[in-house]
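I would love for you to help me understand the pair of lines that follows before we discuss the fold together.
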Amino acid sequence: MGEVFAADVSRIRQWQTLMGDITGITDHIVRDVDAQARSCAGRAGQERATAGELRDRDRGEHDGSRKTGTSMMQAIGRGFRALKVNGSLIQGARNDAYDTDMSGRH
């Protein structure tokens, strides 16, 4: 007798929805942080001899934060797409098995 494979497609779909929501939230966070950082750009050390160094450091931190947030969003998005494909494949296999079983009963 063959092995039995069982998967709860509804749970996969729940995780897929959650991952999609997290991707959207992460995107909003990245955009908000980016907008806030841009609104403060150029304010660092305007009156000081070290103004250029402070602005360069500020710009570097802003760029690093944006890249990190974007990378997180992309990674979560890849997980979302993988769950979507996985759920579709499992649902397709389940439908095929059901159709085969039903056609054998005629």
